[in-house]
Amino acid sequence: MDPFKTVNAVAAPLDLANVNTDQIFPARFIKKPRSVGYAQFTFHDLRSDAAGNERADFPLNRERYSEAEILVCGVNFGCGSSREGAVYTLIESGIRVLIAPSFGDIFAANCLKNGLLTIVLENDRVISLREELDASERPQMSVDLEAGTITTPSGEQISFSPDPFQKHCLLNGLNEIDISLEFADEVDVFETAYRKQFPWTAPPCG
Amino acid sequence: MGNARTIFEKIWESHVVTEREDGECLIYIDRLLLQENSFHAFDKIRRENRAIRNANQAFAFADHYVPTTGRSRGLDAIADPEIRNMVELIESDTREYDITLFGLGDIRQGILHIVGPEQGITQPGLVIAGADSHTSTHGALGAFAFGVGSSEVAHVLAVQGLWRQRPKVMLIEAVDPLPDGTTAKDLILAVIGKIGAAGAVGHVIEYAGSAIEGLSVEERMTVCNMSIEAGARAGLVAPDEKVFDYVRGRPYAPTGEMLNKALDYWRTLPSDPGATYDRKVVLGAEDIAPMVTWGTSPEQVAAITQSVPDPAAEGDIDRRQRMERALAYMGLRPGQELREIAIDRVFIGSCTNSRIADLRAAAKVVEGRRASVPAMVVPGSGIIKKQAEDEGLHEIFLAAGFEWREPGCSMCVAINGDSLKPGERCASTSNRNFEGRQGRGGRTHLMSPAMAAAAAVNGRLSDVRDLLGGG
Ligand code: SF4
Predict the structure, then answer these.
(1) How far apart are CA B143 and CA B11, in angstroms?
(2) 3 state DSSP class of B168
(3) CA dist., res. B124 & res. B439, Å (int)
(4) Structural contact between residues B125 and A198, judged by C-beta atoms closer than 8 angstroms
């Protein structure tokens, strides 16, 4: 995973609550191997109608947001299924940062594993941010993870407090399995004691 | 009272391998459940050249992509090569890594959240990670069970643990027994309607109260299954004698002296009197009526006796916009009686409602009647299918014009080829009514199996109590 750098890019407002992973990445595409390229599936059925025509009212279809690397979303973004393809598709579309009042838990965990930064802000703050993006001539923002600051198009600074572990992993581009395997001895010790206390949990041989 | 703990805290604390300064805990995972979509996880393991730590703690299920007809032809029953590839991949990946697979052609095959408990893989006190968001189902037996994405599946395969912040715990207390004609599905839909699709984000839900105690273990699975639709990390119910009876004698359950030890421990799991919760919600179950969803989120739900709500009457602008969008997608008018909504199809199945009791409940409504729209029953596992056939339920369904299919996820997620056509309206016993969930442009109304059966008979959303001759 590449280390997370400061993102200075177009930000798009996505004013929809409870956007689920079926909307981000419809289930019928899950069976596609990564090699086909997942960018083509991002928000597929929100972006285009059944005949394949682009919906003009979808923000990412608008010229001014087409290069977006930051999405400012609604409450409970990424709820629903655990499919990690929803994260792959966003990353392959160039999205680096998601800002929302809350995220689906599994989705947020999946983002972290893949270097996609999720930032939680108060709902009022998120709403005003979306309004500012819509109103500004250049909807450009920057996100500095190291410093924990967002700079809005007008130059205003918003601070956010990333989870320290998330920050550490993202800034260093760490593979979490490598970090965890450093605890392999602890897992061994735990497992031995655990099996002694709860012997019936030992792997079944049925 | 300082030591009074919830069941969740007891399970959590017995699984902490290590805790970092920032509060992240490495949690030991007892069981890992896999399905065809786990192929990304195996790809990651291969790409990063990792060893699998405890292959015998992982179980794989062919369910999402399997065909529900023509099964005697095995893989050849799958015409679409991409779909067939998914079933082949889970076979080859599990063979390569020596992981138990409940695959096509195995009588035990079925939906992972049905087969896990049915085989005794799910037990009280365990921590279970599953490659599917509805892993919360297993909490009905008093386990802490939650869904993870592919990267975390790979992490569990390599480490046998996962990093987690300790979640908050919410108590949902459902008091009073459910009225006649209502079911666990109506209860959980009412809960989601009350707290919202994001109502339990960051929380594990413990369901308790006399209504929950009165439910069978299977019905509790229906409740826990949909915890994720309220945004919860997991849902669980304290295990009682019903659970112990359920687990006892199942193929992967402990036996003999081990079982006695396990039982001694399992009996200590329920929350202590005076244990504290981060949030509590009390719900009077006696007021619950049969529920149906009218929108595109499970929170958009109402009693069948009501009408489609009017967005204009909604004060909250966000909610109003969501309602307007949902009604446009669903093709419904405010004020329309729910009981007048005509449907095109009926789907009885999914990990929410395809256990034997669900099929019996639907059959009871259907018996001696005819479906007036295309309808299908997809049992949750091969074992359930056989039991239903031994009881003659399939004959009731077939005589009523229903299709009697082979087990799998089928039209719950519509990726095996069973799907709605654009604009088709379906009465479904599954768990998600998202836009396009059952096929692009398809319209889903969620409800209980008995309600879906009633809808099939009448060709429109119906109050099952009218057909059962009760109040
Ligand atoms: S039945 Fe539906 S919800 Fe359950 S595991 Fe299958 S696809 Fe997921």
Answers:
(1) 8
(2) strand
(3) 36
(4) yes
Vertex B249: Cα angle to B247 and B255 (nearest 5) = 95
pLDDT at residue A204 in the model: 67
> Could you tell me where the DSSP H helices lie in B337-425?
356-366, 382-390, 393-399
What's the average model confidence in pLDDT over B268-275?
97
- Quick check: A101 and A120 in contact, CB under 8 A? yes
φ, ψ (nearest 5 deg) of residue B245: -65, -35
What are the angstrom distances between the C-alpha of B246 and each of A157, A206, B118, B254, B261? 57, 18, 9, 12, 17
The answer, for A177 touching chain B at a CB cutoff of 8 Å, is: yes
Ligand 1 midpoint to CA B100 (Å): 20
- Give the three-state DSSP class for A83: coil
B384 burial level (CB within 10 Å; 0-12, 13-18, 19+): buried
Number of other residues whose CB lies within 10 A of the CB of residue B165: 12
> Are the C-beta atoms of B200 and B181 separated by less than 8 Å?
no
Amino acid at A20: N
CA-to-CA distance for A25 and A23, rounded, in angstroms? 6
By CA distance, what is A180's nearest residue in B? B159
Q: Is the pLDDT of residue A80 over 60?
A: yes
- The DSSP symbol for B340 reads G
Do B205 and B235 meet the contact criterion of CB atoms below 8 Å apart?
Answer: yes
**Euclidean distance between CA atoms A196 and A199, whole angstroms:** 5
Which residues contact residue A194 at a Cβ distance below 8 angstroms, ignoring those fewer than 6 apart?
A: A201, B14, B15, B28
Distance from CA of B226 to the nearest CA of A (A): 10
Contact A86, A110 (CB under 8 A): yes
**Structure confidence by residue, pLDDT tens digits, B115-127:** 999 999 999 999 9
Which of A43, A168, A170, A180 best tests the B interface by mutation, with the highest count of B CBs <10 A?
A: A180
| Residue B128 to residue B136: CA distance in whole angstroms | 9
Tell me the whole-structure pTM to 2 decimals. Answer: 0.95
Confidence band of A1 (pLDDT split at 50, 70, 90): confident
B79 interfacial to chain A (CB closer than 8 Å):
no
Cα–Cα distance measured from residue B153 to residue B147, given in angstroms and rounded to the nearest whole number:
9
Phi/psi of residue B283, nearest 5 degrees: -135, 130
CB B111 within 8 Å of CB B381: yes
Q: For position B263, what pLDDT does the model report?
A: 98
**What is the whole-number distance in angstroms between the Cα of residue B356 and the centre of ligand 1?**
17
Query: What is the rounded CA–CA span in Å between residue B108 and residue A53?
Result: 44
Q: Where are the alpha helices (DSSP H) in B14-149?
A: 39-47, 81-97, 112-118
Specify the pairing of strand A70-72 against strand B144-147: unpaired
Compute the mean pLDDT over every residue in chain A, rounded to the nearest whole number: 94
Contact (CB, 8 A) for B355 and B388: no
As a whole number of angstroms, the distance between CA A80 and CA A103 comes to: 10
Distance (Å, whole) CA B78 – CA B61 = 17
Whether the Cβ atoms of residue B94 and residue B100 lie closer than 8 Å to each other: yes
- Ligand 1, pocket residues at CB < 6 Å: B 63-64, 111, 113, 132, 134, 350-351, 409, 412-413, 430-431
pLDDT band at B318 (very low <50, low <70, confident <90, very high): confident
Residue found by looking up tokens 């947020």 in the block: A108
CB atoms within 10 A of CB B422: 11
B352 to chain A: which residues are within 8 Å by CB? none
